[in-house]
Amino acid sequence: MTTARLSAAGGGAEAAAAYAARPWLTLYPEGVGATLEPRFSTMTALWDDAVSRRGGSPALYVFGTVLTYAEVDTAATALAADLVSGGLAPGGRVAILAQNDPQWAIALVATWKAGGAAVSLSPLLKGRELAIELADSGASVLVCLEDLYEDVVSDVVDGSPLERVLVTHPADWVEGDEDRAHLAEVVGARRAVDGAEPLLEAVRRGSSVALPQRVVAPGDVAALVYTSGTTGPPKAAMLTHAGMAYNAQVFAEWFGLGAEDPVLGIAPLFHVTGLVGHLAVSWYCGSPLVLTHRFDPELVLASVEQWRPTFTIAALTAYLALVEHPRLGSVDLSSLRTAASGGAPVTKAVVDRFAERTGITITSVYGLTETTSPSHLTPPGCPGPVDPLTSAIAVGVPVPGALAEVVDAATAEPVPPGTLGEIVISGPMVVPGYWGKPDETSKAMPGGRLFTGDVGFMDEAGWFYVVDRKKDQINASGYKVWPREVEDVLYEHPAVREAAVVGVPDPYRGETVRAHVSLRAGASTTERELIDFCRERLASYKCPRSVRFEDELPKTSSGKLLRRDLRDRP
């Protein structure tokens, strides 16, 4: 099988027949079928069902504050009425620029009630980036935090499509002097903001206005979510109401989640993982979502102790931060039945380290913004196998309704199990395209098939493995090097906390391998020791020729390592 994978043999009728059989179905959890009958066709229907069933039950846990589904719904309805009164048309865009606060949920539901589409913005955007995404989305309303308005937004309002800016403080829906004091310490005290309206005033005003009925359709855009965009201008994936509702149901049914399963909100809500894996999943179940404003290991651990969540999903970098926290060993994490990780391949060394300290095995999840979060999940109680050649942990198996293939880069035809190729996905979770970019859509999703840009393979049993991104492959003297394989080895070194490997220009080899690492607290090592460590475990052409030590590795706002920033360093 290794020979077949390395030879990149062609596809043909035999390979196509193998994929049609969908061998992964034998790995499905009990009670989960090959297809899924959607319970809800829109997110508004999903939300209304949660309020109907669980109105008096907690929807949000925010530090010591509890907000019920009815309370969130009342605020969202009032805000929606004010948005409509202020001129928001059906299909109009409302941008949200905030951290993991109640305002995110309230603004999102309000946008849908008003018949609009949310524009999900990262709170880490700088002025130039924000101006581009506001112009691209055509958002007429922005809901943002006061500190972000002063630091970034105020400089780009002029010349943008914005007609209204509603500002809020993270403590606006938080009770308790201690919690408010903590937020004031993090972002500063409430302040008057020139040129913007207080969000609380809009809610108060809208509470006395009747909300006209606006109906959204399954194919309507629920959220525009900008992709990480390693090259070229940012692209907004159009997440539909039907797609979000579908994958919320996939998560819940796959992991057996219900109303008694609080969700720990580690991932940022502006990211597809937070939107679907936190907000949509908790609403589908009618369960509480635990929020901590920003990811902070101490606050996360305290929230687990206080609210006893059973499910979470986060980037691997979040688990790296938790596993290094000195208090981890003294915290009771037994309530966390499922701790999943997506956004980047899970590394075996980190999984082993986390399991050793907590007794919890991190579960692999695979998906993209363009697949509305999960396209592949790992069955509960069935850890993904490890590929002996690349040391990659399987990212899971295709979820109900998804067809995943590995195709030849040149022909786009399916290749046999065990053969490297590009992963291609189709199914109800794939978005219809990128906002306002038909050419980009037809290139990435011809005929509704998403070409992910991820290189991997499927084994005979139906497990999928991601080796790396196509664009990150290093060509050293004609030898192909996948950064992921080198990073996995570096993570095995006891001193390494984080690792990223990039290809850099080399006058002799064309490209050569450079590693960037950050070290665990109190640990030490040398460049020579790390290079020798790799040489003992890898072919010489794969080994780093140089190692740079960093205090922190650069990451996207969702926690993914930014290899492109490292490549650009002299």
Q: Looking at CATH, which topology of the largest domain would you report?
A: Rossmann fold
Rg, alpha carbons: 23 Å
What is the mean pLDDT? 90
Uncertain residue segments: 1-12
Proportion in β-strands: 15-25%
Structure report:
The chain is α/β, with parallel strands linked by helices. It folds into 3 domains: 2-34 and 315-470, ANL, N-terminal domain (Rossmann fold, 3-Layer(aba) Sandwich), CATH 3.40.50.12780; 43-306, 3-Layer(aba) Sandwich (Rossmann fold); 473-567, GMP Synthetase, Chain A, domain 3 (2-Layer Sandwich). Helix content is 32%, strand content 22%. It is built from 18 helices and 25 strands. The strands form 5 sheets. A 9-stranded mixed β-sheet has the order 2-1-11-10-12-13-14-15-16, sandwiched between helices. Strand 5 (141-145), helix 7 (146-151) and strand 6 (164-168) form a beta-alpha-beta unit. Helix 4 (69-85) crosses helix 9 (199-206). It starts with a helix and ends with a helix.
Summarize, please.
This protein has 570 residues and is of the alpha/beta class.
Helix and strand topology:
Elements: H1 2-7, H2 13-21, H3 43-54, E1 58-62, E2 65-68, H4 69-85, E3 93-97, H5 102-113, E4 117-120, H6 127-137, E5 141-145, H7 146-151, E6 164-168, H8 177-187, E7 197-198, H9 199-206, E8 221-226, E9 236-240, H10 241-255, E10 263-264, H11 272-285, E11 289-291, H12 297-307, E12 311-314, H13 316-323, E13 338-341, H14 348-358, E14 363-368, E15 373-377, E16 397-398, E17 403-407, E18 421-426, H15 438-444, E19 450-458, E20 464-469, E21 474-476, E22 479-481, H16 483-492, E23 496-506, E24 510-519, H17 527-535, E25 546-549, H18 563-567
Parallel strand pairs: 1-11, 3-4, 3-5, 4-8, 5-6, 6-7, 10-11, 10-12, 12-13, 13-14, 24-25
Antiparallel strand pairs: 1-2, 8-9, 14-15, 15-16, 17-18, 18-19, 19-20, 21-22, 23-24
Helix pairs in contact: 3-11, 4-5, 4-9, 10-11, 13-14
